[in-house]
């Protein structure tokens, strides 16, 4: 039965991924350049300068774990196209290599969403579980914000769902720890802090 569940969730995820791949050439907001610049900042500068660089108007203003995430991605970005991570020459760079690289990193990072929803719904009855999986994996909001506008919210929501799944198991310490990790990625999740405190 668990194998069927995994198979169905993977099918939902694969179908959603196919749609996301079709969205690669779609509209891009300024957040696309923001994240490209953050790749350049974290790749080109020493850690002590990450939060002080003003080469671009898009300064690094997310918590440290997200900066390290961008640094990790920058290692691969340099291999795809070195100009992506060039702090000066890369300003407003929007070649196909940048577009495909950044869009695919968002798609790949959605694996945390897949794992989070899988772990959270593992004890839920099948019909309800499938409904939750479809609603999360196919969320129009995430599709628009992450794969058109350009963000990594699915990645972060996956971590949050993972945290909630541990709370659901009565493993409050690891659930709280994972929530703290989410906060170190994006401070906007602080709105959920009172729930964790209670």
Automatic annotation (TrEMBL):
One of its GO terms (biological process) is protein N-linked glycosylation. The chain crosses the membrane at residues 7-27, 100-120, 127-144, 174-197. Belongs to the ALG6/ALG8 glucosyltransferase family. Its EC number is 2.4.1.-. Pathway: Protein modification; protein glycosylation. The lineage of its organism: Eukaryota, Viridiplantae, Streptophyta, Embryophyta, Tracheophyta. It is a multi-pass membrane protein. It is found in: Endoplasmic reticulum membrane. GO terms for molecular function: dolichyl pyrophosphate Glc1Man9GlcNAc2 alpha-1,3-glucosyltransferase activity. Keywords: Endoplasmic reticulum, Glycosyltransferase, Membrane, Transferase, Transmembrane, Transmembrane helix. The keyword Glycosyltransferase applies. GO terms for cellular component: endoplasmic reticulum membrane. The keyword Nucleotide-binding does not apply. This is Alpha-1,3-glucosyltransferase. It comes from Brassica carinata. InterPro entries: Glyco_trans_ALG6/ALG8.
């Amino acid at each position: 039965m668990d194998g069927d569940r995994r198979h169905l969730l993977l099918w939902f995820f694969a179908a959603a991924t196919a749609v996301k791949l079709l969205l690669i050439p779609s509209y891009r907001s300024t957040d696309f350049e923001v994240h490209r610049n953050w790749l350049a900042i974290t790749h080109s500068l020493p850690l002590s300068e990450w939060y002080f660089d003003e080469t671009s108007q898009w300064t690094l203003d997310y918590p440290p774990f997200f900066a390290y995430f961008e640094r990790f991605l920058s290692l691969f970005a340099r291999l795809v196209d070195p100009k992506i991570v060039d702090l000066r020459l890369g300003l407003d760079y929007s070649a196909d290599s940048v577009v495909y690289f950044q869009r695919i990193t968002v798609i790949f990072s959605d694996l945390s969403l897949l794992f989070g929803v899988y772990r959270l719904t593992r004890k839920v009855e099948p019909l309800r579980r499938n409904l939750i999986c479809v609603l999360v994996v196919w969320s129009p909001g995430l599709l628009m914000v992450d794969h058109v506008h350009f963000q990594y919210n699915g990645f972060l929501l996956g971590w949050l769902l993972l945290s909630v799944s541990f709370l659901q198991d009565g493993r409050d310490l690891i659930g709280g720890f994972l929530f703290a990790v989410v906060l170190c990625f994006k401070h906007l999740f602080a709105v959920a802090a009172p729930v964790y405190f209670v």
